[in-house]
Specification:
With 326 residues, the chain is of the alpha/beta class. It has two domains: 131 residues, NAD(P)-binding Rossmann-like Domain (Rossmann fold, 3-Layer(aba) Sandwich), CATH 3.40.50; 183 residues, 3-Layer(aba) Sandwich (Rossmann fold), CATH 3.40.50. The strands form two sheets. The chain has a six-stranded parallel beta sheet, sandwiched between helices. The protein has a five-stranded parallel beta sheet with strand order 2-1-3-4-5. Helix 7 links the parallel strand 6 and strand 7. The two termini are 18 Å apart. 39% of the residues are buried.
Amino acid sequence: MKTIGITVFGCEPDEAAAFKELSPHLGALPAIVTHSVSACVSIDSIDSIPATGNRCISVDHKSSLSKAGLQALRATGVRYISTRSIGTDHIDIPAAQQMGITVGNAVYSPDGVADYTLMLLLMALRNAKSIVTDAGQLDFRLPATRSPDLADMTVGVVGTGRIGRAVIRRLQGFGCRIITYSRSQKSGCASLPELLAKSDIVTLHTPLNDHTSHLLGHRELLLMKPGSLLINTGRGGLVDTAALLLVLEAGHLGGAALDVIEGEEGIFYSEASPDALSHPFLRRLQAMPNVIITPHTAFYTRRALYDTVRHTIKNCLEFERSTFHG
């Protein structure tokens, strides 16, 4: 079995350990680079990276790759990019196609994201943010109003891919009514306006692309039932954040739990001081007692890590084999 080289950009220590553990068994030789690929191309240091010249590279979802960055990579011989994520919205796919660079994603177990989604959903439903905050300040009084039971709720699941289906399986155990929407108009799915109008809770699990950007804008958010909840563990760009802030401040929605948010790049995965935080909406959302913000961490499980690394290596191997035989 021929061993192939893979340059792994933005590689965290646990990812590096997984690459080193799995690569020998799969026939790969990883070159670990701790800097993100976007940082390397932005400072014109791509030529100094070890193993420059590998046709296959791996990048993380935290790094954006523009046309200029792709051009710099192609000049070093890159022909295949495997992103260690399901989504590819951080890469300029049309530009990559024009340059003859193939982009692949890494599929991992949907269980971690589905579990996290249910956790956020239940936290939002039971007003956990306020309860935990009050208890931390030694205020142990019961809330003024009782929370509803999930079994009495209608939950709208937007997107019925692997993660959406995993969320549905978990919801079925709670006995709630489930409505689904899929852009492919699968049998049994509702229209998006119907789902929004009938759901007490809406959870988003559809990819972000040109068709789904701001899938929920101001008009769609107003279609949601008064007092309903929005959960987003998909991509921040699925929701018009400015519009979401308006309907929350107006009291139309009962709350939101967001693991992703527009403009999170450069903020999430870093320690941001209050003075330096320049996001136009993040601090206003965080200040709301009925809004939960977490830093794009639903995917962050051990199983997902090993699935991602394994599929990244296999993606690169399949590309090399297909081009060799082709």
